[in-house]
Amino acid sequence: MELHQLTIHELHDKLADREISAEELASSFFSRINALEPKLRAFLTITEEKALKQAREVDKAGKYEGLTGIPFGLKDIFCTRGVRTTCASKILENFVPTYDSTAGRRLEEQGGILLGKLNMDEFAMGSSTEQSAFQSTCNPWDLERVPGGSSGGSAAAVAAGEVPFALGTDTGGSIRQPASYCGVVGLKPTYGRVSRWGVIAFASSLDQVGVFSRDIRDCALVLNIIAGKDPLDSTSVNLEVPDYTSFLDGEVRGMKIAYPREYFQQGVDEQIKTTVMQALRKFEAMGAIIDEVSLPHSEYALPAYYLVAPAEASANLARFDGVRYGLRDFEAQNVVDMYSQSRSQGFGNEVKRRIMLGTYALSSGYYDAYYLKALKVRRLIANDFDKVFADFDLIVSPTAPTPAFKLGEQTGDPLTLYMNDILTVPVNMAGLPGMSLPCGLVNGLPVGMQLIGKAFDEGTLFKAAYAFEQNTDYHKMRPVLGVK
Amino acid sequence: MGKEFEIVIGLEVHAELKTATKAFCSCSTAFGAEPNTQVCPVCSGFPGMLPVLNKKMVELAIRTGIALNSEIPEICKFDRKNYFYPDLPKAYQISQFDLPVCKGGYLDIEVDGQTKRIGITRAHMEEDAGKLVHQGDITTTPFSLVDLNRSGVPLLEIVSEPDMRSAQEARAYMEKLRSILLFAGVSDCKMQEGSLRCDANVSVRPVGQMEFGTRTETKNLNSFRSLEKSIEYEARRQMEAIEDGEEIVQETRTWDEEKQVTRSMRSKEEAHDYRYFPEPDLPPLKISREWVNTIAAQMPELPEQARRRLVEEYGLPEYDAAIITLNPDYLNFFDQCISSYKDAKLVSNWMMSELNRLLNQNNMEIGECRFKPADLVKILQLIDDGSISGKMAKTVFEEMFNSGQAPELIIKEKGMAQISDESTLINLIDGIIQDNPKVLEDYKNGKEKAFGFFVGQIMKASKGQANPGVVNKLLKERLSSSEM
Ligand SMILES: [Zn+2]
Fold first, then answer.
1. Taking the mean position of all CA atoms in its chain, how far away is CA A444?
2. Helices and strands of chain A, counted as H and E runs
3. Contact A26, A52 (CB under 8 A)
4. CB nearest to B283's CB, from A78, A200, A235
5. ipTM of the assembly?
6. Is A50 a catalytic residue?
7. Architecture of domain A3-262+273-293+386-476
8. What's the whole-number average pLDDT of chain B?
9. Which of residues 274-293 of B touch A (CB under 8 A)?
10. Is A150 annotated as catalytic?
11. SS3 of B260, please?
């Protein structure tokens, strides 16, 4: 098998057995990247020189443990010391942080080698990566289609074999939906499981750092490294981090799996419903107990999300004012003009739309009707999940209502685009862990199923997903890109 | 003026809490550093940065609450106060909106011998903004520079009830509050450095009217004098406006120190909509009762307790005790004096007259004095044993205040010791009598003035060093003996 098709644990064995050096490994990925990028456009910044230097140092040290020498990519929302971090926005086009995100730093401390920064929707606002100020990324399975978003660059790069794994962020589905579209594993851990420090904030109470990988074992290996309390992030939780690979025993006998009827209605593609139902039957055949449940408030998740997330975003993005860093209009003659002109030029339409939505939702006189009401809905959604989890170990649903759509198809109508996240948003609103796992193809396009667990019970997700993987071949599906 | 008006005043006081580091990062809070040398990515609002709460700030806030008889709720939380200004790097200030750290409370003030209780509404924690440096005037400056050293410095905003009815009461409240903050050790309260600032809400209403008049808020009063003057001015302005049939506009005003007037800054219509919402980066803060009890048990002596002690233990008049307990350094000076000198009233007299006069003249704080309490005690003892006269003592004291030299040294260098030795004085007296036979004749003829002349001559000859009491006694003896 080609190097680019291998998983982290397979690559690790090759490094440990001295079949290949870290430098050779990195170089081989860079040749793949250079060959694919003209078509795929997943990277915003490629850090070849820095990566090769790091790889040489790793080889010099000669100790290959865990992630040592394993290449990876970061969504361009993770701040990287000395490496341009744009959030796919013109306003940060030339921004070079002086600090690393905690998650990215932990990977590098474990010997991981950063190959570059991956494309995304501007400030993570979007579901197709078409909102990037710089480029659209293509879906490796069909170059005319979107990779999903907002972490589309990360999903596409992992699916295409440009990196063995990547980190993304998920505020309303930004890891799970592109993972589904690109046929890879995508994990959004429980809110508070992974530090958000050094990750540019979109909606602070919903954002969570997560993993894209080729298989479940890789996902567990990476979460082992990035999970855990960070004193710099007060919302990260001080709970012991289990060894997630210890859940990979292939056993689901007696596991109680619920499927919410609401998640198989409301505009979900019939073939996707069928595919996910087949996956559920598979679990049943493996000894799990499956049953239908109701999550009645989930239908209010999307409208509530579009109040909470833009409200927080309107404050989080206010710092991009042209004063200390980022784009500034030097023609402006006074401070108010400097603000409005810098921000007008620096932000794209979707970002402006959400800033306006959020500003409105927080305005005096509207706060109770919108923001406060949305917080109450959030509580109701969480209560729904709590009730189900009193009797079940896991919830399974489709990840997205459709497979990847065509580039340009949904740019006109934001509301249609927002519907892509209808099945993933409730999970963020409740702060629960969610994973998308490939479970079939529909019209030649990958489809993911979403596993939802109890708070801080990522272990059960890994357990079920690994068992499914062991009994199916969907994780071995690779897009044909016509490039060696 | 026709109608009788009543003035209604409420004060919002910002006290800088005495922490070594800022509210949400580990930058130093030291005053007076070079611009932008005490900043980091957190307090300068860089992307992806998160606040970490300074525990010391909370402790000092709780201590203040205890000193002000407030309730410390078990849960408080932080909120974002949103507005754009170049000195506010995140474009929001982390503050507390509906669940502050201290609820309710009061302090007692004394005006014209009457004690009055002023209610405290609340006290909440927040971070300070940076500062703009203009090139000359703000309206004509070609550009402005931003200094973020103060950005993120912890503040406690203490809001009073509208319980004050005169500028003197407002001043007394402010003085009392300052002394409580100083005694509690929570703030340096240096008004010139901005570590204690005050906004005054002022309205007027016809005597007897129940509802409040429309109020204005005068910002950033940074001395007791400007507080008093601005309230007097503002109340007069409002009364005159009402007399003239005008309506008071609810607005924010600023105090023009130079012209001694308040001027309109912005009206209610132009007022900021701060769009408060809960700070998602900081979980709600649980304050355990144990912590509050521990802080309460370690409370230092507060002005009220100290005042009672001075009255009850040392028999000082209420007035003296109130003045001495305005400032812990002042009280400390007093306490040190009376540990080795029993006449507390005499110490108090000296502190309130000579010491106060010189401190005011030199615009100094007692902490800046170059001599020690023991030096004042020494002077008092020298008066007691007749070594110097009361008048000389004042000269010595002033010299000691200026030079910091020990009193004995000053007396010696200036040759100021009092002459009480009888034989020395008899020689002197006899000489004067012999030199002035005519005056002696007058004295014998019953001219009272002659006695005064002799005393004057003796004091002059002794360069003022002769002990007047002894001179009187001896002169009488010698004159009666020369009669014989
Ligand atoms: Zn700082």
1. 23
2. 15, 11
3. yes
4. A235
5. 0.96
6. no
7. Alpha-Beta Complex (3.90)
8. 92
9. 275-277, 280-283
10. yes
11. coil
